[in-house]
Specification:
The chain is α+β, with helices and mostly antiparallel strands and 96 residues long. It has a single domain, classed as Ubiquitin-like (UB roll) (Roll), CATH 3.10.20. The chain is built from two helices and five strands, in the order βββαββα. It has a five-stranded mixed sheet. α1 runs antiparallel to α2. The longest helix has 22 residues, at 40-61.
Length: 96
């Protein structure tokens, strides 16, 4: 599973998005329009949190007993993690 996230702020508004792929198939896409008071960093963080929650839901739907390794691309950084690590990261990002 590969996940790409992005958040941006410009004169047309603020938004977050994420795309989740299994192999070459896009299995989920998220697009969020945010309040204009949100910063670019907040948009980036929200994209990550929403992507992690979507990954968790996908995992619940397609769960096997194996511990899969997920990957998340944030900008030019590739992060690999297990579901347990994802829970910890998601909680930290939600707290800000």
């Amino acid at each position: 599973m590969q996940t790409y996230t992005d958040g941006s702020k410009h004169n047309q508004g603020v938004g977050s998005s994420a795309a989740i792929f299994i192999g070459s198939e896009k299995v989920a896409q998220l697009k969020l329009k945010l309040d204009s008071r949100c910063s670019n960093n907040q948009a980036e963080q929200l994209a990550i949190v929403k992507a992690l929650k979507a990954i968790e839901l996908l995992h619940e739907k397609t769960s096997t007993h194996a511990l899969p390794l997920y990957s998340l691309t944030v900008g030019s950084h590739l992060i690999r993690f297990t579901l347990a690590t994802m829970h910890t990261l998601s909680k930290r990002l939600e707290r800000g």
